[in-house]
Structure formats: structure tokens, C-alpha cells
Amino acid sequence: MMKLRTLIADDEPLARERLRYLLAEDAEIVITAECRNGREVLAALRDSRIDVMFLDIQMPGRAGFQVIEEVGSERMPITVFVTGYDHYAVRAFEVHALDYLTKPVEAERLRATLKRIKEQIAAREALTTQEKLRAVLAMVQTKEAFRAEYPARLLVPEGSKDFFVSVSDIDWIEAADYYVCLHVGARSLMLRDSIKQLASTLDPAKFVRIHRSAIVNVDRVKEIFHEGRSEGCVVLANGQRLRMSKVGWQSLLAVSRNKRNA
Fold first, then answer.
1. CATH number for the domain harbouring residue 206
2. Same domain, 116 and 168
């Protein structure tokens, strides 16, 4: 059941008592504060979360409209004005009050106001849920777009022709001066690119630079050996053994953990 934290603000004790009595009929209303003047209202709003406020217009210290001016209508809880005078109605709605009740407050009229309050809160929650869903969807779409930036194939020149190599088929990549050597099964293909540049274009969730001279396809790694404090090695599914630095070992472990948790 939804519980609405409610504040009653009125300088007249009998008016507060009557409103408290009428509100007690609604199990969703929880009165968390009663205030006698504008200063107490400001303190209550500052110190606790209030969902609904029944605010007298004429109070000592600060009147109801002064309270709204100090807090700002956009930061106010749902506000219902309660007053003995009906000539403030237009101004009340100008500051975005939900409703305007005249004293003495009638039970039937109050029930109608509470219904409007709950409808507005439900509408706000629905809007918030929609905004959250849109934010999640946007994040997913951004991630998908980001993933799509990684190439699925590499164009490799060979003599008078060029051909494509599927990135997923690459076992590991070796640095060779201004070139890199792509190890694809039993084939070794040369590509004019530095290992640093190539590493920046490949998906880091699938390809890890385990050494300054080697990038490995994580899916091809069969075993990891960490030897001492500085270096180790990995063994690929085809039996190939590659040197691995300490930083490379940490990067490979981080990617492996992320793949398990995904």
C-alpha cells in the first residue's frame, strides 16, 4: 500500500485537529508533521521528505505564498491550500497548487482531493518509470552502437589482390616492426599497421594485449601461467605458447572475469 507522508500547516489548533481527524480515514495518509507557522513549514520541508502538504494561506511568520516563494514551486511537494477565504483561489493555482479547500473542510470534498492527489502521484511514478526505461534503452543502444564500431573483418593486401580476414578467426597477433603478423590457423598474414594502432581498433573484450609484442584472442586461450612477479605465458588451444607481461596478465584476468559475469 502506498504511504503518503503528509504535512498539515495551520496556525489554528482546531483546524489542524479537524483535518487530522478527516485524514485519519485514509490508510494511505501518514501525518509526519504539523506546523503552526511558515517558519516551521520551511524547517519541516528542509529536514524530511514530504509527499503532500495541506497549507493554510494566512499564518504568522510567513504566509503560505511566502513559503512557496522561498522554496520554489518546482521543489514543493503536492500542495493543497486550506483557507477561510475563497478570493485566493486564482493565485493558488498560479503557483501550481493541486487544490484549494475552504474552511471548514468537508469530508466529501477532502476525499475528492485525496483522489486527485493519488492520481497525480501515480502519473508521476508512471512517467518516472518511462524515463528510466528510456534511459536504459538508450544505454543499451549506445553500447550496441559502440560494439558495432569494432571491425568484424580486416582487409589484408597480398600481392596484387586484397582479401578479408574475419577477426574472430584470428588466434593471435604478433608485432613485426611497422607491420603486424596475423596468425590465423596455419596461416600467417602481414598487415601494415603497428600493434598499438591495431589494438585500439579491436574489441577489448575479445582481444587483449598480453605483451608489447603480442595480442591474443581471449577465446583461443586454453591455459594461463603466471611465473614470478613480472612475466608469465599463455597456451592457446592450438598449443602455441606466448609470453605474457604482468600488465598483460592483469588485463587478461579482468576480461576473463567480465566474460564470466556477463
1. 2.40.50.1020
2. no
Q: Are residues 10 and 131 in the same domain?
A: yes
What the block records as the C-alpha cell of 41 is 513549514
- Does residue 145 register a pLDDT over 70? no
Spatial distance between the Cα atoms of 183 and 170, rounded to a whole number of angstroms: 6
Domain count, the chain: 2
28 and 127 share one domain = yes
**pTM of the predicted model, to two decimals?**
0.49
Question: Could you tell me the three cell numbers for 226?
Answer: 603466471
Rounded-to-integer distance, Cα 16 and Cα 7, Å: 10
Euclidean distance between CA atoms 31 and 53, whole angstroms = 10
Q: What is the per-residue pLDDT across 44-86, written as a single tens digit (0 to 9) for each? A: 998 889 999 998 887 776 777 778 888 887 788 888 988 876 6
